């Protein structure tokens, strides 16, 4: 977490103007609080240096126009106001006044506090109100509803969720909450009164069974129908289940919902034995959390090293050693052959005591509603550059301001990835993201980011060095054998490689189906 310390400059005393170039950032402190000072052209901004999502250091992030991106999870904040503009952060960070005099930059009074929720201000509209229906009560659906209100959308907004709980912080379910270090009151994304105050209707414990695109109706469980003018599918993913004998026993669990995490907590008594199937993010997070509760944990996975596919062998060994130092036992190069009451039997016949089995072997996108509605599918819902599906009426009723914001966010995401992508093929009916984006670089937690092998993928990020080959470290640096770009993997998209669909050889990919991310992400 980015915290102020004695070695950071006191920004109320000023810093030399020349120390802050265009596009540069400097972390100082005001009254003991870490403050990020940033410059764009002749404008100077000062906001809180700590991301309001999980406390990431914004000073190590990336400036995109007049915003800053958190290096951990890509949360986006306005440098002008501190407002959280893009998920996963929801609350604004602090903002201060700045002043330039006598060749120095000074930070003055605080304008706004961190953690504030910006009120929605729906604009009044003449005539009948539109209705936006959002299917899915996760983080994406919640953020979409809130941003619609903050953007001035005055129509009705309804969130349909088959979860009994209001939208909550899903990633925390496999981290601090499961470990017992975060109370449950931290889990909801917003308090109950937020939805009433902002005119957002929550239909919890409600299942959408079908979509009638012609009549613009959603069929709900129990036979009810709900009309809509615009529809957003934010159904997320579901865990992949084990296909072995005994996989349906009651002590075999997955981790996806708040109810799942509560169930694991109830079963994770001190001294019990747990087997975690899968050695990727969710499996290892669950293993670490259960060890914190003094549960004996064994991890079973077919790969030779945990997370080797995305991190490589060196970091895979580092991750394994880190978990083993906390008492986790690995059974790598093996799969589960069968599950019995009180034990798991591996493919080589070795038994492991198991009072609890946690399965984290990947997720698949929930696309059955889209399939039933006749939308274009290719292991995921195919969309264009505006995230619009193949339903013709939906495409014609484009929400232009929201679409422009989505385009700006997509550009920032590409900048935080490995390279710049070309404009999508506008002649194609649906834009298809390249398969390689599913294998894009993983932003790691601070302990892993300190490993020397991790480096900035693009050394010239945030700098306009087009046309000046000799000044561009990306172009002039020596390229090691087998690499077309320093620090970049060759299985990721190349510059000017289309990520849009169409006639020029781009490849389809499942939307939201990152194998190994089963559970809370």
The radius of gyration over CA amounts to 24 Å
Count up the helices.
12
Protein structure class: alpha/beta
What proportion of the residues is helical, as a percent range? Answer: 10-25%
CATH topology of the largest domain: FAD/NAD(P)-binding domain
Largest sheet: 6 strands, antiparallel
Distance between the termini: 21 Å
Mean pLDDT: 78
Name the strands of the widest sheet in spatial order: 1-10-9-4-3-2
Query: What overall geometry do the principal axes of the alpha carbons give?
Result: globular
Any idea of the CATH class of the largest domain? Answer: Alpha Beta
CATH architectural label of the largest domain: 3-Layer(bba) Sandwich
Report the uncertain regions: 393-404, 410-521
Q: How many distinct folded domains? A: 3
Number of strands: 27
| Percent of sequence in beta strands | 15-25%
Looking at CATH, the homologous superfamily of the largest domain is FAD/NAD(P)-binding domain
Quaternary structure? single chain
Question: How would you explain this protein's 3D organization?
Answer:
With 521 residues, the protein is an alpha/beta fold. The protein has three domains: 11-112, Rieske [2Fe-2S] iron-sulphur domain (Rieske Iron-sulfur Protein, 3-layer Sandwich), CATH 2.102.10; 131-238 and 365-416, FAD/NAD(P)-binding domain (3-Layer(bba) Sandwich), CATH 3.50.50.60; 252-363, FAD/NAD(P)-binding domain, CATH 3.50.50.60. The protein contains twelve helices and 27 strands. It has helices spanning 139-150, 176-179, 192-197, 258-267, 281-292, 308-311, 313-324, 368-372, 392-396, 400-416, 446-449, 473-476; strands spanning 15-16, 25-30, 33-40, 43-48, 62-64, 67-69, 76-78, 84-86, 95-101, 104-112, 131-135, 156-160, 200-203, 208-212, 217-220, 225-227, 230-233, 237-239, 252-254, 273-277, 296-301, 329-332, 336-340, 343-346, 351-353, 356-359, 363-365. The strands form seven sheets. It has a six-stranded antiparallel sheet, with no helix packed on it. Strands 19-26-20-21-22 form a five-stranded parallel sheet, with helices on one face. A hairpin with a 5-residue loop joins strand 7 (76-78) and strand 8. The longest helix is centred in the last third of the chain and has 17 residues, at 400-416.
